[in-house]
Amino acid sequence: MINITINGRIVQAEEGEYLLSVLKREKIDVPALCHHDAVEPYGGCRLCTVEITKKEWNGWSDYVTSCLYPVEKGLIVSTHSTKVNEIRKTILDLYVARHPNSPEIKELAEQYGVFETTFETIADGDNCTLCGICTRICDEMGFHAISLVGRGHGKIVAPPLNEAPPDCTGCLSCALNCPTNFIKFKDEGDYRTIWGKKFELITCSQCGKKTITKEFAQYLSDNRDIPYEYFEICDECHRKQTALEMGKIANWTREEQS
Amino acid sequence: MKKRFIVNPSTCTGCRNCELACAFVHAENGKLGKSRIYPIDGGFKDLWVPVACLQCDDAACVKSCLVNALKRNPETGAIELNHDICVNCKACVAACPFGCSLIDEQHELIVKCDLCGGDPACVLFCPTKALQYKPIDNKTNKIAV
Amino acid sequence: MQIANPKQLNKIRKEYLAKQDQYPKKIMVCCGTGCIANGALKLVDAFRDILKKRKIKGFTVEALKETGCHGFCEQGPLVVIEPDGTFYSKVKAKDVEDIVEKSIKKDEIIEKLLFTDPVDKKKITKYNDISFFKYQKRIALKNLGKISAHSIDEYIAYGGYQALAKVLSKMSQDEVIQEITKSGLRGRGGGGFSTGRKWKICKDIKAEAHYVICNGDEGDPGAFMDRSIMEGDPHAVLEGMMIAAYAIGAKQGYIYVREEYPLAVTHLEKAINDCENLGLLGDNILKTGFSFSIKIARGAGAFVCGESSALMKSVAGEVGEPRAKYIRSVVKGLYDQPTVLNNVETLVNVPIIIDKGADWYKKLGTPKSSGTKVFSLVGKVRNTGLIEVPMGITLREIIYDIGGGIIDNRPFKAVQTGGPSGGCLPESQLDLPVDFDTLTEVGAMMGSGGMIVMDDRTCMVDVAKYFLEFLVSESCGKCVPCREGLFQLLKLATKICEGRGEEDDLEKIEKLSDNIILSSLCGLGKSGPNPIMSTLRYFKDEYITHIKDKKCPAGVCRDLITYEILDNCTGCTACKPVCPVNAITGNKKELHVIDQNLCTQCGACFAVCNFDAILVS
Amino acid sequence: MNHNFDKLHEIFDRHPKTQESLIAVLQDIQKEYQYLPSEALTETSKVLDIPLSKVFSVSTFYNSFSLNERGETVIKVCTGTACHIRGAKLIKDQIESLLNLKSGETSKDKKFTLEEVACVGACAMAPVVITNDKYHGSVKVSNVKKLLKAK
Question: What is the ipTM of this complex?
Answer without folding.
Answer: 0.92
